Automatic annotation (TrEMBL):
This is Ion transport domain-containing protein. The keyword Nucleotide-binding does not apply. Residues 204-225 are annotated as: Disordered. One of its GO terms (cellular component) is plasma membrane. The keyword Transport does not apply. It comes from the Eukaryota. GO terms for biological process: metal ion transport. InterPro entries: TRPM (IPR050927). The chain crosses the membrane at residues 73-94, 126-147. One of its GO terms (molecular function) is monoatomic cation channel activity. It comes from Rotaria magnacalcarata. PANTHER family: TRANSIENT RECEPTOR POTENTIAL CATION CHANNEL TRPM, TRANSIENT RECEPTOR POTENTIAL CATION CHANNEL, SUBFAMILY M, MEMBER 6. Keywords: Membrane, Transmembrane, Transmembrane helix.
Length: 256
C-alpha cells in the first residue's frame, strides 16, 4: 500500500508529465507528516473500501499520457493484491470460527452421548408398566445389601450395575490412571500450600499482636514511671517550700 502510494503520487505530481506547474496550481509537496498522510497514505487506504475519489477521473482525463497509463497498471496490480489479501483474511477468520464451532459441537455431542448412554444403562430392560416390578425388585435388593453392609458387615453387591467408562486399550487405561494420579497430587500440593500460607499468616498476625501487647505494656510502664517521678518532684517542691517558709519566719524573729 505504501509502495503504490509513493510510486503513484510521484508520477501524478511530476510537473512535466501531467502539466502541473506553479501557474496551473502546484500540489502540496511539503515534507511533513500531515502532507504525507493526506497526499500519499489516505487516498491509497480508502481504495481498499472502494472509495476511489478523483483517482479514476484524473486518470481517465489524461489517458493519453504515459504517467496515467503506468498509474492505471499500478492501480490494477494494487487492487488485485489488496483483494487477494482481504479474501485470505476472510478465509482465515471463517476457518477459525469453523474450528471453534466444530469444537463446541463435538463437546455438546459427547455430552449428549454420555447422558443418552447413562440414561439407557440405568433404565429397566422391560417396558412400562412391567418395568415397575423390576424397579421394586432392584430397590429391595439395594435395601437388603445396605442392611447387610451397615449392620452385619457383609460384602457389597458385586453384581450391581456400575456405570464406568472402561477403555478397550490397556495403555489408554494406564494413561488415565497416571493422569488421575498426577491431578490428585497437584490438587493435594496446592491445598498444602494454601494451608501453609494461611498458617504463616496467622502466625505473623499472632506475633504482631503479641509485639503490640508488649509495646503497650512497655508504654504503660513508662507512663507509670513518669507519673511517679512527677509525684516525687511535687513532694520535693512542697518540702522545699515548707523549708523556705520556715527560714523566712526564723529571719523575721531574728531581726525583730
Amino acid at each position: 500500500m505504501i509502495g503504490y502510494g509513493v510510486a503513484s503520487r510521484s508520477m501524478v505530481y511530476y510537473p512535466q508529465g501531467n502539466n502541473v506547474t506553479l501557474t496551473t496550481g502546484s500540489p502540496d509537496t511539503s515534507f511533513s507528516g500531515r502532507a504525507i498522510f493526506r497526499n500519499v497514505l489516505y487516498p491509497v487506504y480508502y481504495l481498499m473500501y472502494g472509495d476511489f475519489g478523483d483517482e479514476r477521473t484524473d486518470l481517465d482525463n489524461n489517458s493519453g499520457t504515459a504517467w496515467a497509463t503506468a498509474d492505471q497498471v499500478l492501480l490494477a496490480i494494487h487492487m488485485i493484491f489488496v483483494n487477494i489479501l482481504l479474501v485470505n483474511l476472510l478465509i482465515a477468520m471463517f476457518n477459525k470460527r469453523f474450528d471453534e464451532v466444530n469444537e463446541d459441537a463435538r463437546t455438546v455431542w459427547h455430552s449428549q452421548q454420555y447422558l443418552f448412554t447413562r440414561e439407557y444403562f440405568t433404565r429397566s430392560p422391560f417396558m412400562p408398566p412391567i418395568s415397575l416390578i423390576y424397579n421394586i425388585y432392584y430397590l429391595s435388593r439395594m435395601l437388603v445389601f445396605f442392611i447387610r453392609r451397615e449392620f452385619f458387615h457383609g460384602s457389597a453387591d458385586r453384581s450391581a450395575k456400575t456405570f464406568k467408562i472402561i477403555a478397550i486399550n490397556k495403555d489408554l487405561l494406564e494413561e488415565w490412571r497416571e493422569f488421575e494420579g498426577a491431578s490428585t497430587y497437584t490438587y493435594a500440593l496446592n491445598e498444602v500450600k494454601i494451608l501453609k500460607a494461611a498458617s504463616q499468616k496467622f502466625k505473623k498476625g499472632s506475633d504482631s499482636s503479641s509485639t503490640q501487647k508488649e509495646t503497650k505494656a512497655g508504654n504503660s510502664e513508662d507512663l507509670n514511671e513518669a507519673a511517679d517521678n512527677v509525684r516525687d518532684v511535687q513532694d520535693n517542691l512542697s518540702k522545699l517550700n515548707s523549708t523556705i517558709e520556715g527560714m523566712k519566719l526564723g529571719f523575721k524573729n531574728y531581726f525583730m
